């Protein structure tokens, strides 16, 4: 694994915000520690959960573990960790032995976003290998999500948080819960049965007629169109037993 990481470092280099995620195999960890100095080695939560299931069979741990991984605060992390500890006391020791900063979001030591203020209202946000331009005064982002949905995107949220601004004030009022309540506060009037609805058709004929189509040539098809989920039946030969043809077209020797 040392040679693999050396080749990886030769291609991508190494920097302070670099993170390599893998499973918890010892050879990967030893190879990473031998090559990298400032990069971070994270553990894949999927493989970590598989190892837990192998050691603690038939325990309903998946939901609590995933919430533990995605928790943003140490307090939230501890809440779900106690649920795992109630299932099996040794589960906490196994998870913390590998280093919770390597798999839990609440203790992760690297930033997911790098932000560079341009002026009071404009920011350049780096996420992974992409760069986004955020303007909180015009409520725009180069990813176009804030422009179209009128809800701050993740790049806008990190820019607003650096200025300690309220995210809700930069969301369109149409998406407020209070606005949704006001829309249905007066209720909806009933329309009655179909025969009580007033006819507003000017021509006097309110019947819906079928579209005028030209009858195609040939015999009408009686067989229904098969769904794309339906698999075609495989033809078997009763004579030789092979697939792809029937006994009439069979050319196998008797």
UniProtKB/TrEMBL annotation:
InterPro entries, per the entry: Znf_CCHC, Znf_PMZ, Znf_SWIM
SMART domains hit by this protein: ZnF_PMZ
Matches recorded under Pfam families: SWIM
GO molecular function: nucleic acid binding; zinc ion binding
Domain SWIM-type: 132-164
Domain (CCHC-type): residue spans on this chain: 237-252
Keyword Transcription in annotation: no
Transcription keyword on record: no
Sequence segments annotated as region (Disordered): 199-220
UniProt keywords, alphabetically: Metal-binding, Zinc, Zinc-finger
PANTHER family, per the entry: MUTATOR TRANSPOSASE MUDRA PROTEIN, POLYPROTEIN, PUTATIVE-RELATED
Name used for this protein in its record: Uncharacterized protein LOC103496884
Organism: Cucumis melo (Muskmelon)
This protein's encoding gene: LOC103496884
